[in-house]
Amino acid sequence: MTEITRPTLIIDKAVCLQNIERMAKKAEKYQLRLRPHFKTHQAAKIGEWFKLFGISQITVSSVLMAEYFASNGWNDITLAFSLNILEINRINRLADSIKLNVLVENKEAAEVLALQATNKVGVYLKIDTGYNRTGIPAGRTGRIDSILDVLSKNSKLTFKGFLTHTGHTYNALSTNEIFSSHFDALLKLKKLKNNYKKNYPGMELSMGDTPSATICGNFDGIDEIRPGNFVFYDLMQHNLGVCDIADIAVKVVCPVIAKHVSRNEIVIYGGAIHFSKETVQNTDGKELYGRVIIKKGNEKVLLDTKNYLSRLSQEHGIIKVTPANFKQIKVGDLVEVIPVHSCLTANMMGHMITTEGEFIEMMPKY
């Protein structure tokens, strides 16, 4: 592997492939279309790994990301971010070359799309099923009717169905809460489908989020799932009971730059610009920014939660360790940190290296 001298994102390709295969098999078992969200890895090379398992349709979170993956051979893309009407010209260009689906949640966006769409575009209505971030509340059928009426004025627009992101599963305190949130969203979507299937017999239901896609077993009436984080997983998913540590494919390797014996703290080169500032609650009730792996002899050892990444500033990370482990770690060593949120960590880092030493460039930011 290339010599590591600064914070470096390492991914285990074998684990990624196992994660993709497991999700693909689950989708097949429940007769679902798997349209994975590529915002997690944002890399054309990793996108190719999905094709090994028959994936041909993807989800992205920005027009820029859609353009990037379209230029890398993907021609069926859902832009799962509510329509930004200021980008309508770029959306028209995209829709001229690929099969593109967009999200609409208000009449203003629908009117711009109906007036200015020049190519065929699939349209999902974004439904809020409890996350309370954005989207049409599931019970607001009047708003849905008004939007559908506007969309019908342009024959190039096809109403595809209803789409939701059950993001509140990430805030669950137990797996039972994940099951409950998922089932509640499922019922809301099915009710909408029952209300509209007569006029739109081909309409579909699309759900996304890694926690429910991974552990839930009821997808009755759902046509498509759009998880993304599952390709890497992370500590957030592990804390939710969604994955095992062995399923987490990403680590940030960081140089040790200082030690402070009076505080049993290790200082690493690796801060908020590498990890972001996402946290989970540690076993001691304090904020945890990452779990730590060190080398002991010829083996790598995951330290227990008494040893953890406890603070971040822009470039610095502070690792709290027990006295015994403090002695094991030397200035100049490399430690591995399992991140809390792999999507944000990957986005911050911009590139990654596989455990086999393959360099993987992510999409440009502009």
Q: Which structural category fits the helices and strands?
A: alpha/beta
- Assembly state: single chain
The CATH class name of the largest domain reads Alpha Beta
The profile of the biggest β sheet is: 9 strands, parallel
Overall morphology: elongated
Q: What percent of the residues sit in helical stretches (DSSP H or I)?
A: 25-40%
Task: Count helical runs.
Answer: 12
Q: What is the CATH topology descriptor of the largest domain? A: TIM Barrel
Low-confidence stretches: none
What is the assigned CATH homologous superfamily of the largest domain? Answer: Alanine racemase
- How much of the sequence lies in strands comes to 25-35%
Rg over CA atoms: 22 Å
How many beta-strand runs? 21
Mean pLDDT: 96
Description:
Belongs to the DSD1 family. Residues 249-356 form the D-serine dehydratase-like domain. InterPro entries: Ala_racemase_N (IPR001608), D-amino_acid_metab_enzyme (IPR051466), D-ser_dehydrat-like_dom (IPR026956), D-ser_dehydrat-like_sf (IPR042208), PLP-binding_barrel (IPR029066). This protein has helices spanning 13-29, 44-51, 63-70, 88-95, 107-116, 141-151, 175-196, 210-215, 235-239, 272-275, 323-328, 342-349; strands at residues 8-11, 33-34, 58-60, 76-82, 99-104, 121-128, 136-137, 157-165, 204-208, 224-225, 250-260, 265-269, 280-281, 287-288, 290-296, 299-302, 308-312, 316-320, 334-339, 351-354, 359-361. It folds into two domains: 13-233, TIM Barrel; 245-361, Lyase, Ornithine Decarboxylase, Chain A, domain 1, CATH 2.40.37. It has 366 residues and is of the alpha/beta class. Strands 2, 3, 4, 5, 6, 7, 8, 9 and 10 form a nine-stranded parallel beta sheet that branches. The chain has a six-stranded antiparallel beta barrel with strand order 11-12-18-17-15-19. The longest helix has 22 residues, at 175-196. The protein has twelve helices and 21 strands. Helix content is 31%, strand content 28%. 43% of the residues are buried. α5 (107-116) runs parallel beside α6. The model has no long low-confidence stretch (mean pLDDT 96).
